[in-house]
């Protein structure tokens, strides 16, 4: 099992290694995160579909998201009461895509596309792989928006090269 601490996000300038700006990727995905009334597994599935459709390599990860601050509380008796089973995506170069940590951990939790920077929350990876694909009409129902018509991801650098 691998662990990653996080409470802050990496600055947008720290996109070394990825062929696009993570701030642009987050801005592209944020409307979906706001519209879709799904939990972490559903959100990870929706985002994974869009990333695949746009040729962005990633891995689906599942495991525990643990509140390390709560874990240090003497009133808390077990590690299980400090964490939740959770799903997120890994882009490589240390980047995570997670738009649902706040659903379980509150507003202090990280959100969006980021490099875990150490701190209060820790991702404990138990499994990695890919989701089986679902037809876009089912994803549309899950998202409450037409995922099939989602605009392509066009990072600024790609537009400038055209």
UniProtKB/TrEMBL annotation:
This is Uncharacterized protein. It comes from Pseudomonas aeruginosa.
């Amino acid at each position: 099992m691998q662990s990653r601490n996080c409470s802050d996000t990496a600055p947008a300038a720290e996109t070394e290694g990825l062929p696009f700006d993570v701030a642009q990727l987050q801005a592209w995905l944020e409307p979906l995160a706001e519209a879709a009334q799904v939990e972490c597994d559903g959100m990870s599935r929706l985002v994974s579909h869009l990333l695949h459709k746009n040729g962005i390599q990633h891995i689906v990860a599942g495991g525990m998201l643990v509140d390390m601050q709560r874990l240090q509380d003497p009133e808390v008796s077990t590690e299980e009461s400090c964490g939740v089973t959770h799903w997120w995506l890994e882009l490589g170069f240390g980047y995570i895509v997670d738009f649902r940590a706040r659903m379980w951990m509150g507003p202090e939790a990280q959100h969006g596309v980021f490099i875990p920077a150490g701190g209060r929350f820790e991702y404990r990876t138990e499994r990695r792989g890919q989701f089986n694909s679902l037809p876009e009409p089912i994803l549309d129902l899950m998202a409450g928006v037409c995922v099939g018509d989602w605009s392509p991801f066009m990072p600024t650098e790609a537009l400038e090269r055209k």
